[in-house]
Prior knowledge:
117 residues; mainly alpha
Amino acid sequence: MIEKAKNYFLGKGGRRYNCAQSVIKAYSDSLGFSLAPEAHASSGGGRAPGGYCGALYAALCVLEGEGSRKVSECEEFFKKRFGALTCKEIKSSGKVPCLDCVVKAAEFLEKEFLRKE
């Protein structure tokens, strides 16, 4: 799921998706669910509700849609790694590229849905 999300974000395979779409599409591909990445076209680039990072917002949407109780755990996972939850705050550090957010969101979902322990 992580590699798929990265590749979608980087446009490998022909079409480039934004951060939120990349996470949604990778999740859908990996688990066989049909979530439309197009529905999240306006959630990238700091435009997700509440100013959330788009990749994080997509991961939260997946978790909520699957009935997972790990929404707050996902937010803490992001906050611990990036120091914030909003795109603006994350980007203001100048040290975190969007690709890193896509990778971490996909990593959390992969751990939650593919490598349950």
